[in-house]
Design goal:
Elements (H helix, E strand, L loop, with lengths): L2 E7 L1 H4 L19 H9 L3 E7 L18 H11 L5 E5 L13 H16 L1 H6 L4 E6 L16 H19 L2 E4 L1
Parallel strand pairs: 1-2, 1-3, 3-4, 4-5
Length: 179
Amino acid sequence: MTKTVLTFGDSNTYGTPPAHARGEYRRFGPEVRWPTVMQAAIGPDWALVEDGLPGRTTCRADPVMGAHMDGQLGLRIALESNGRIDLLVIMLGTNDMQTQHAAKVDQVVGGLAGLLAIARSEPYQLRHDGFDILLIAPPLVLEQGTYRDTLLGAHEKSRDLPFAIAQLADHWGIAFLDA
């Protein structure tokens, strides 16, 4: 029986390469994107649902991109619009540290905790006959390139994020990976 993994994240999950100019929308091919590389590694017994949205946050509407960037809204939609899943993989937090949101590490972790509360809630667990969760700490933020001005201070915060996310995963009794 085929199992299904739902990967839920931002541009890292979508597969956005470094931007050469603002407003540019490109995507790595499936042979490079981490969800499809992961699916190939875990084998043909797993189906993949990729739900990566560039700009998505854990729980914050974006003042320019819109309210739909709120990951809590997005996760509810993803869990309701997909059939049975066996594993939910969440990798978010980078966009929360952007200058316009200015979230501190504990606020990012709070947003992730909200996502876990949604995922672990009885309605979604029953809808999908229960599923496991893997929480991934996103890669270190580099304050460079086209969007450098939106990442002021994010590098330092992102250095502390994996430890804080690992503690959250341990508290919830779920799997953790540091990207």
